[in-house]
Every structure is written in structure tokens, then in C-alpha cells.
Amino acid sequence: MEVIVFYFIFDAHFKMMQKKDSFFINRIKSIGIAAKGALLLIKNEASIKVQIVVTILVTCAGFYFDISNTEWLIQLLAIGLVLGTEALNTAIEKIADFIHPNHHKKIGYIKDVAAGAIFFSGIAAILIAIVIYIPKI
Question: Which DSSP string do the residues of 25-48 spell out, in sequence order?
Fold first, then answer.
């Protein structure tokens, strides 16, 4: 019984000692963590570096060809889709390698499916670029 009473007193005291951050502060911290993750990707992943170069090139093309606001929105969505899919694929690969560092048939399947998602988003982005830029050339 004394242990239970001690636990409740300690727990209540511990909770009072912890200051909870406001909703706004937690959102700011979340943005910082997300930015850190994006920078880690850019710094460490070759595939993301390639995608960033492509992003810069199509953004320059957008300014050069003076694409419409609607075309900008669609292009930005395509860029976000490809970069987001690439980031998720990287996360899946890292988790799979952590769980099973050696080659395993099921891990290979998981990695292939994740890479397939990039393939789909990449094809969609290429088709979007064709629709936007071929008429302007």
C-alpha cells in the first residue's frame, strides 16, 4: 500500500515538474524536426540530390516559359509527390535494412514495392511535364 501511495505522490509531483509546451510551440518543434529530416535526405541520399536538381531545372523552365498559375500548381504538386515518395521510399529502405540487414526475400519484396511507388510518381511527373512544356516548345 505504501508503494502505491508513494507512486501516486511521485507521479503527481513529476507531472507538475514537467512543463507542457503550448500547441503552437509543439507545431514549431514539429516543423523543425521535419526540416531536419529533409536536410538529412538532401545531405545523405543521392536520389534526393538528383530530384532536387530536376526540381531546380523544371522551376527554371517554369519561369522561362512563363507557365500559368494552374500549371505552377500542378508542377509543384508533381514535385512534392516525387520528393515525398522518394523520402518515404528511403525511410522504408532504412527500416527494412535495420530490421534485416542481410538479404531476405520478403525484405527485397518490400523494397521493390516501395521503389515501384517512386516509379508511379515519376511517370506521373514526366507526363505532367510533357503536358505543360511540349506545347510551349
Answer: HHHHHHHHHHHHHHHHHHHH-HHH
Structurally, the chain folds into a number of domains equal to 1
Please give the helix or strand (H or E) that residue 131 lies within, else none: helix 105-133
Question: b/e map of 70-90 (b: 16 or more CB within 10 Å)?
Answer: ebeebbeebbebbbebbbebb
Is the pLDDT higher at 26 or at 71? 71
pTM, to two decimals: 0.79
Chain-centre distance for alpha carbon 120: 16
Q: How far apart are CA 85 and CA 121, in angstroms?
A: 7
Domain limits for position 76: 39-136
Give a yes or no: residue 10 inside a domain.
no
CB 93 within 8 A of CB 21: no
H and E: helices and strands count for the chain? 5, 0
Residue written as cell 525511410?
91
Contact 133, 65 (CB under 8 A): yes
**Rounded Cα gap, residues 51 and 46, in angstroms:** 9
